[in-house]
Amino acid sequence: xxxxxxxxxxxxxxxxxxxxxxxxxxxxxxxxxxxxxxxxxxxxxxxxxxxxxxxxxxxxxxxxxxxxxxxxxxxxxxxxxxxxxxxxxxxxxxxxxxxxxxxxxxxxxxxxxxxxxxxxxxxxxxxxxxxxxxxxxxxxxxxxxxxxxxxxxxxxxxxxxxxxxxxxxxxxxxxxxxxxxxxxxxxxxxxxxxxxxxxxxxxxxxxxxxxxxxxxxxxxxxxxxxxxxxxxxxxxxxxxxxxxxxxxxxxxxxxxxxxxxxxxxxxxxxxxxxxxxxxxxxxxxxxxxxxxxxxxxxxxxxxxxxxxxxxxxxxxxxxxxxxxxxxxxxxxxxxxxxxxxxxxxxxxxxxxxxxxxxxxxxxxxxxxxxxxxxxxxxxxxxxxxxxxxxxxxxxxxxxxxxxxxxxxxxxxxxxxxxxxxxxxxxxxxxxxxxxxxxxxxxxxxxxxxxxxxxxxxxxxxxxxxxxxxxxxxxxxxxxxxxxxxxxxxxxxxxxxxxxxxxxxxxxxxxxxxxxxxxxxxxxxxxxxxxxxxxxxxxxxxxxxxxxxxxxxxxxxxxxxxxxxxxxxxxxxxxxxxxxxxxxxxxxxxxxxxxxxxxxxxxxxxxxxxxxxxxxxxxxxxxxxxxxxxxxxxxxxxxxxxxxxxxxxxxxxxxxxxxxxxxxxxxxxxxxxxxxxxxxxxxxxxxxxx
Length: 689
Hints:
By secondary structure, this protein is an alpha+beta fold. The strands form six sheets. Strands 12, 13, 14, 15, 16, 17 and 18 form a seven-stranded antiparallel sheet that branches. A five-stranded mixed sheet has the order 2-11-10-3-9. The mean pLDDT is 86.
């Protein structure tokens, strides 16, 4: 392919990807499967790596490319981002309608009173500014006049177009928009489940997650939250002619859709308070099925010119109003309080309730968070309590309802021993923790799933269903037992045949040669994520050095503070954990360690493979390819997915495919597996079988 052909294909791929993004995010009508979309995206990425001079900021491949910032600059909004006057009562809504009609009559306007009715999305407001159709700035609402510039974070949101569509309706040269960033309930639930399994406090509602994610200094942290954006207003624009500007709010929605922006499909037209109340009632009844949080409806005068005449107060526009939903609460009887053990051993008191319907959902359990929360609210078994769905998602007990003539039960207290394994519980602040990390049955299945996860030992085929089966059948009583499994033990189990049993055992065997950072992450040490595990491995070089490190020594590692250091030393100081680790490393797991660090640690740009681009292709014998890539990255290499003239090494295993052919055609250095290990050994990396 010559240069002109490559450039033409790049342009065509960008147009196709933007088109399919528009169909998926705006029209909710995808035409191709995810796999076909991925194929287009990967092809574009490969071509851009081969021709970096043609990479543009608005390319679909450039969403997560920004570096972490020290702070966000403050910027002035293109137009004020005002709040909305709001209330929950019908009387207040009727007063708003009366005021608006009187104000229009006094202005001698001939405008027919019609409203745009919209769901009130419960998220974080965002300003987007496009110039020449390209996204140039994004900012938080801040105080309404100024906000924090978070452009790189906004670029990570898939439903934020980096370039506007210009075919159905030309976009003005400058366009400032307002929208709401939200997190779906599904993503919110998954996030909170992970936090609670790690012994951390869950978020109260999706809005808090969205607002916090937008203000992450590292855009990669924002990207990990799976945010969405719905746009609903034009703050300012430079129209080529007045005729190009929409005249009503409903026309604004159509223009936004034409430009490729996601707009709620729940918006309606209304003409009276009765229309508004019917719309409000309809959405309140459907809110549990929407997949995202709304906390009311927004009513706006539909005619944009008439809005100008009505103006605004210092805080609210006079032409808009929010009719809120009442909080979702219910009263029921607390039957019992049971301690529940999470993956990291945190024991959480759970209220077992007499089942009650709360906004269309039957609730029979609610969280009480920790023992101090139970004492503060003074709730006891048998009490009558008021519950609500926090953020309309997580059921929680709000308060006890007094019953003066009823004798109450005894005050509840956390048991001294773990309800699962009988180990004496430890107290850390308000939390009670079972320190028997690897032998407690309640923790075992979750720990095994985490241990074999993609970022840990990456055991292909070790899923949640099979792990629970192994634990139930007592084939695995401790984590080390996983590496003793034989195919003939698995074949009688449901879901296994000879081939699948052999493949899983082979995958476990491959994972037994584990990169140190992955092993550390897989242990599930509280507060130790993938980044901290990698930093620990790079800083100390060997597992034994990490294991024996004092809190002071651990705090010398970037990102490790007193709390993280304490968690690590407590984990390695627990006798039962030490016994399990000895069993794992006594012949079952072989660690691939960077080795002791030099006396003067090198900066990233001083690592032996710093600046080198590597591509891996084909299967490797000694370990999964993903782990081998991690080793190269720990030495400073940048691992990419496609071969170009800028590639320094291609590591070719079994059945390498077209990447090997391309490397040879371009004259790129090719390393077989043995040569790759020899390269690493030359830098002191242990890579023996």
